[in-house]
Amino acid sequence: MHSNSPAQDFQGAGGHSLSYGSALYPMYVIHHTVLETLDTLIPHEEALRRGLLLLVKPSPRGTVGWYYLEDASGNQHGGRTKCTDSFVGASHRWLRPNLKAELSHPDDENNTKLRSLKHLFRNNRTIFQTNNSFPAEYLWIDYLCVPQFDRESQTKAIASIPNYFRVIYNFVSLALDEADFELYMNRGWCGIECVAHRSPAPYQDGSRNVQTLLPNNQIVFYMNDCTQRRLDWNMIRSPLQASFTIEADRGLVTPLLEYYIQELRRYRTLSYAEVWTGEGSFPPRDVPEDYIQMLEQSVAEYRDQQAQERQRQKQLEMLQSMQPKEPEQSEQPNQPEHSQQPKAVEGSERRKGWCRCFCC
Fold it and tell me: What is the pTM for the complete model shown?
């Protein structure tokens, strides 16, 4: 028996639930007209402080797939609720990565990425081919919309990725050229964003029926020449087979990936009455089985590596506990001055107490 409800029981980053409920960290987006005013991409904390971001909330009427946008003053932006077509999620490889957050930046010194994002929205109807009533006009990109300097808030935002990508209908992978796209697909966070967007989301049409939508509006945009192509299933790789600047992030991605695998499995079981069959959605039969199996195999291999590492660590601890402890030296009574050993011998004996180079 299948269910039209998303998975509820996965634990994500920091042990936070990946449930279908509210995001653990709020979802923010930036309107394309505000994006136009930026000279360089700025971190989330600064954008929030300057009041440049909009808070995304569910529709007050409870309509699934429609959203209320609130500005920094608490007022509604745009005068009406917006549907999923209005949102764009941008995935990208950081061009100036650094383990120190204050030295890391997603763009190059020429602001190539920012200029490309502006181009995308200036030509949004042509590029994204969305409903003319709801053109793509709001951007979600990690640097602007996810905390960069507070690890706890960032971890909550990572666990909220499923919530964010249920809002976003349009998805763009940014790469300088084809060679850079290969580098992009070798980044773990880029991979999980590709997987996350190609995941089922609820949607309510004009008849008020709640159905499931699997967005198919994903493109690769080449920033050097402003050309694009469709992001196909066979172009997406498992993020666990990619690299991470912070290796510990691999552990944060794994439960997300397990969640999406279950969601795709669930979607393949749905009847056509339960899915959105209009333009812009993959029907269940179009989700490749080999794609899901590829993701499943990568998770299994990673979990096996984790188990082996835990076993090696356990064996090492056992060996260390079996090693005989060196006897504690008892205090020697004071000896007459004439009975003490020569200083050279005394130094030699003292070295033997701690030296492990076998030269003493």
Answer: 0.79
